[in-house]
Each structure stands twice: as structure tokens, then as C-alpha cells.
């Protein structure tokens, strides 16, 4: 069985690559996860996987039970950050809140839904991608990073290298079950 990183605690960032260490510093100095602690925040995306490129943001997913409480907390704690904005919309019929702002070193994106964080698609994709990176050589990782530098989003980059056809986001989730990565 592949040994997986515990992505529920950001301590792994302290000993990671330079970007991960900078992310740890940004998250802790600005107390971002502390202020989101009532919403089960999880850092997901390229930084935890050590495949970030220049200008990669920090993606944090959250689970809210009361949308208004979540919005109020975001506005209270992050509303004064540079380039702050917040919007509400639906993803596959699910009410969603998205906030963006900038710290000195990173753009931060907070994505919240009334779905437990570990059941959200951002977390599921990251778990599959992590297993694939652990299961393959450094060349695979380098090729993912190269595709990202060419403008590919993360999931389409993985799908291209794995020859997954159709929707790359669903394809990665299906791939997880085909190869029993869980």
C-alpha cells in the first residue's frame, strides 16, 4: 500500500520544498487555518503535492453548515486583505462560496460548500494525484509540472499523461477506482 501524506495537518509543509515552506509561513503567520477552524479547512491543490508553479495559489476547501456564518467569518478575518473578493454561486446545484485575497507571498482561494471537506472533489482529486505521483517516477512529476507551465490545469495535465479521455476531472476519479489507489 502506498504511504499517503496526512493532508489534514499542514506540518508536512515545514519540511517540504521551498514553496511548501513559504506556504506554511503564509498560512501560520496570517492565522488563516486558525480563523477557518470551525469549517474543517483543508489545503488542497498543487502546493501540497509539490507540483506548484510560479503564481500557484493556495487552495483551501471548507465545510460550512450555515452559509451566512461562513461568509461572516471570511469577511471579518480576511476582508481587509489585498484584492479581497467573495462570491456565491452553484457548483452542480450545490450552493458554493468562493473568496480570494492576497498575502505578501500567495493568492489565497477559500472554497466552501455544505459538504464535508474530505468528501469534496478538490480533496478527492488531490488524493488520487498524490497516489499517482507516489506510484510513478520523478519524470512523471516533471512532465506534470511542464504541462502546467504550458497552461494546463492540474487534472487535465494528469489526464493527458495517463491517456484519460473525456472529462479529466471525472476521469481521474474513475481512474482511482480502476487502479485501487484508495
Describe the structure.
The chain is an alpha+beta fold and 182 residues long. The protein folds into two domains: 106 residues, Beta Polymerase, domain 2, CATH 3.30.460; 56 residues, no CATH class. Helices cover 43% and strands 19% of the residues. The chain contains eight helices and five strands. It has a five-stranded mixed β-sheet with strand order 1-2-5-4-3, with helices on both faces. Helix 6 packs across helix 7. The chain is globular and about 45 Å long. The mean pLDDT is 93.
Largest sheet data: 5 strands, mixed
Order of helices and strands: HHEHEHEEEHHHH
Total of helices: 8
| CATH fold-level name of the largest domain | Beta Polymerase, domain 2
The average pLDDT score comes to 93
Instruction: Assign a percent range to the helix content.
Output: 40-55%
Uncertain parts: none
SSE topology:
Blueprint: H1 18-29, H2 32-35, E1 42-44, H3 46-49, E2 58-63, H4 67-78, E3 82-91, E4 94-102, E5 107-113, H5 121-135, H6 138-149, H7 154-162, H8 168-178
Parallel strand pairs: 2-5
Antiparallel strand pairs: 1-2, 3-4, 4-5
Helix pairs in contact: 5-8, 6-7, 7-8
Brief overview:
43% of the residues lie in helices and 19% in strands. The protein has helices spanning 18-29, 32-35, 46-49, 67-78, 121-135, 138-149, 154-162, 168-178; strands at 42-44, 58-63, 82-91, 94-102, 107-113. The longest helix has 15 residues, at 121-135.
Descriptive keywords:
182 residues, 5-stranded mixed beta sheet, alpha+beta, Beta Polymerase, domain 2
Amino acid at each position: 500500500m502506498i504511504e499517503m501524506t496526512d493532508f489534514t495537518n499542514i506540518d508536512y509543509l515545514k519540511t517540504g520544498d521551498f514553496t511548501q515552506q513559504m506556504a506554511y509561513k503564509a498560512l501560520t503567520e496570517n492565522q488563516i487555518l486558525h480563523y477557518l477552524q470551525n469549517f474543517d479547512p483543508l489545503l488542497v491543490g498543487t502546493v501540497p503535492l509539490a507540483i506548484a508553479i510560479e503564481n500557484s495559489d493556495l487552495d483551501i476547501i471548507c465545510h460550512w453548515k450555515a452559509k451566512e456564518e461562513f461568509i461572516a467569518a471570511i469577511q471579518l478575518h480576511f476582508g481587509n486583505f489585498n484584492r479581497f473578493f467573495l462570491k456565491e454561486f452553484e457548483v452542480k446545484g450545490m450552493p458554493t462560496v468562493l473568496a480570494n485575497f492576497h498575502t505578501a507571498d500567495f493568492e489565497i482561494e477559500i472554497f466552501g460548500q455544505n459538504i464535508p471537506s474530505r468528501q469534496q472533489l478538490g480533496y478527492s482529486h488531490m488524493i488520487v494525484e498524490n497516489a499517482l505521483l507516489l506510484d510513478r517516477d520523478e519524470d512523471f512529476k516533471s512532465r506534470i509540472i511542464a504541462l502546467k507551465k504550458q497552461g494546463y490545469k492540474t487534472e487535465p495535465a494528469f489526464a493527458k499523461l495517463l491517456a484519460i479521455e473525456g472529462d479529466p476531472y471525472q476521469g481521474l476519479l474513475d481512474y482511482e477506482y480502476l487502479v485501487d489507489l484508495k
